[in-house]
Amino acid sequence: MKSATPKLNIALVDDHNLFRKGLIKLINLGDTQNKYNILFEAENGGGLKEKMKEPPFPDIILMDIEMPDIDGFEAVDWLQRTHPSIKILVVSMVESEDKILRMLRLGVKGYLSKDIEVEDMHQALETVANNGFYYSDIATEVLNQNLNGVVKPSHPSANLSENEREFLKLVITDMTYYQIADKMNLSPKTIDGYREALFQRLKVKNRTTLAVYAIKHGIVRL
Amino acid sequence: MKSATPKLNIALVDDHNLFRKGLIKLINLGDTQNKYNILFEAENGGGLKEKMKEPPFPDIILMDIEMPDIDGFEAVDWLQRTHPSIKILVVSMVESEDKILRMLRLGVKGYLSKDIEVEDMHQALETVANNGFYYSDIATEVLNQNLNGVVKPSHPSANLSENEREFLKLVITDMTYYQIADKMNLSPKTIDGYREALFQRLKVKNRTTLAVYAIKHGIVRL
DNA sequence: GTATGACAGGGGAAAAATCCCCTTTTTTTA
DNA sequence: TAAAAAAAGGGGATTTTTCCCCTGTCATAC
């Protein structure tokens, strides 16, 4: 059977064979009109470049981010420069805002989390094939916040005094508050005041969670 | 068609829906004798515990390691204590020697990397179903090295008991030791013993530096 | 000028963490 | 299977942390 419109060629770039093979099954499952053709698979950006040396080229590429050697960012960047007409749909388990934003800025047509429903994946493929854009919830959110100049309700960790930062550096050590006071040439009671203020502002309940907060938010380095 | 032997019930524990669904397709693909039945899926250890509250129980569980909340290690530990007859086949992209070894020590029946061939996955399932063991290359290598007494100056954080790891996860929260004891169904005095032992082994002097150590050495995730 | 708020400091008590030394139970191993 | 080694638990004391309420100082805004 020969369809009027030629099939759409799809390529998969992901470093886990089991995931690629499963994804192929899922794509075919939803491809009731038999319009998709899996052109090739690659394990990483390097493998992709290899396959892209000569035609045929895919119309759509499903791309993971975390891969050995040449990762998704590099691969997408390279694709946009060398084959700008190819539509890229990112399929990744990465949920960090930074990385999502970076991918969107590179101009990908879609961003899917790996824990979406199969139907959503089909929908995304369909949309992208028709020159649309498809972002899963988490990516949409990130996008909106950044378009609307949501400068982010200034993180509480943004406005710390110098003394408070110094105090936090010492909080993650094995010094007692009394020793910290001594080192900072302040009264233990003043230190107690810093502690109390930080507990409230950063919404933590004890010294340990304060230390964890400081580390997690990069206020102190390990 | 009714087979003489009842079907083998399989459960999948992995936090990525797309991977689970793909894996199901791949399992069915190789199941020419139609002997496997996917009993349920779970997103993490918590979901697994939920499903394991009452029969029917699976015969084999395919388990990922990295999952939110209750991870693969905890889930396997729990399973071995509560349902020791269930066969566990780890399917993970984790390739760190430490973690592979830890899983093997927990007594899993098999260890598969996510980038194996589909046929190998079928083979592994078959082998485990028949009371065998199946380790993919990387796991076999790790196992051999350690059997041959390639000791490796093991980091003190390498040989922590499961209870100690669980304790460390709770140490970085705002729970008191009393609450931790309660949650782990142990006496506060036992928890105090864990604390003391870890202080000495990891050379730290208080709860805060213990938490910092655990974070710095990747024993707990933020 | 005075109010307001941020910063430094204090008293005192309750809660939690830390330490030291010891017993029982369970598991491993020789 | 007896001995040894972990693991679990306990008593009790000391130190540290946490909390609440309160005083003075200084600057800055009104």
Structure report:
Two copies of one chain form a homodimer. With 222 residues, chain A is α/β, with parallel strands linked by helices. In chain A, α5 links the parallel β5 and β6. In chain A, α8 packs across α9. Chain A contains ten helices and six strands, in the order βαβαβαβαβαβααααα. The first copy, chain A, starts with 7 loop residues before the first strand and ends in a 6-residue tail after the last helix. Chain A has two domains: 140 residues, 3-Layer(aba) Sandwich (Rossmann fold); 55 residues, Winged helix-like DNA-binding domain superfamily/Winged helix DNA-binding domain (Arc Repressor Mutant, subunit A). Chains A and B meet through α1 and α10 of A and α1 and α10 of B. The structure holds a DNA duplex (30 and 30 nucleotides).
What strand order characterises the main sheet of chain A? 2-1-3-4-5-6
Number of strands of chain A: 6
Helix content estimate of chain A: 40-55%
Please write the CATH class name of the largest domain in chain A.
Answer: Alpha Beta
How many domains comprise the coordinates of chain A? 2
Shape of chain A: elongated
How big a fraction of the residues of chain A is strand? 5-15%
Modified residues (4-aspartylphosphate) (chains A, B): 64
Domain Response regulatory (chains A, B): 9-129
GO molecular function, one term (chains A, B): DNA binding
GO biological process, one term (chains A, B): regulation of DNA-templated transcription
